[in-house]
Amino acid sequence: MPTVLRKYGFRFHFYSADGTEPPHIHVDADGKRAKIWLSELEIAKNGGFNPQQMRRILSIIEEHRNEILEAWNEYFG
Q1: Please, which residues have CB within 8 angstroms of residue 59's CB and are 6 or more apart in sequence?
Q2: Which of 49, 61, 67, 71 is in the most buried spot, having the most CB atoms within 10 Å?
Q3: What is the pLDDT of residue 68?
Q4: What does the alpha-carbon distance between residue 25 and residue 38 come to, in Å, rounded to a whole number?
Q5: Helix (H, G, I), strand (E, B) or coil at 19
Q6: How far apart are CA 17 and CA 8, in angstroms?
Q7: What is the pLDDT of residues 41-56, one digit of tens each?
Q8: How far apart are the first and last CA of the chain?
Q9: Are 46 and 57 in contact (CB under 8 A)?
Q10: How many Å separate Cα 9 from the centre of its chain?
Q11: How high is the pLDDT of residue 51?
Q12: Residue 77 and residue 63: Cα distance in Å, rounded?
């Protein structure tokens, strides 16, 4: 489960089996989880983050989207 980024207490990662799906990133913090599609910056799943946290998560992903996509392509190539 490669971790791509840690910021503001959030851990951004993907799972080894994720390569069959379109590019996305998983986010964990304080027992909460989310899954975000990278192409549209769309929330696929939200397991407990409040709206303010989700806005921050989406902002972080937008800021680091190229880095995250590079890591995705390098890992799943």
Answers
A1: none
A2: 61
A3: 97
A4: 7
A5: helix
A6: 26
A7: 999 999 999 999 999 9
A8: 16
A9: no
A10: 13
A11: 98
A12: 22
Cβ atoms of 29 and 48 within 8 Å: the answer is: no
Distant-in-sequence, close-in-space partners of 66: CB < 8 Å, separation ≥ 6: none
Chain-centre distance of CA 67, in angstroms? 11
Residues 6+ apart with CB under 8 A from 67: 4, 5
Please provide the size of the chain in residues: 77
- Amino acid code (one letter) for 5: L
How large is the average pLDDT for residues 20-45?
A: 97
Block residue for tokens 């909460």: 32
Both tokens assigned to 48 = 């407990």
* DSSP single-letter state for residue 12: E
Cα 16 from Cα 43, distance rounded (Å)? 20
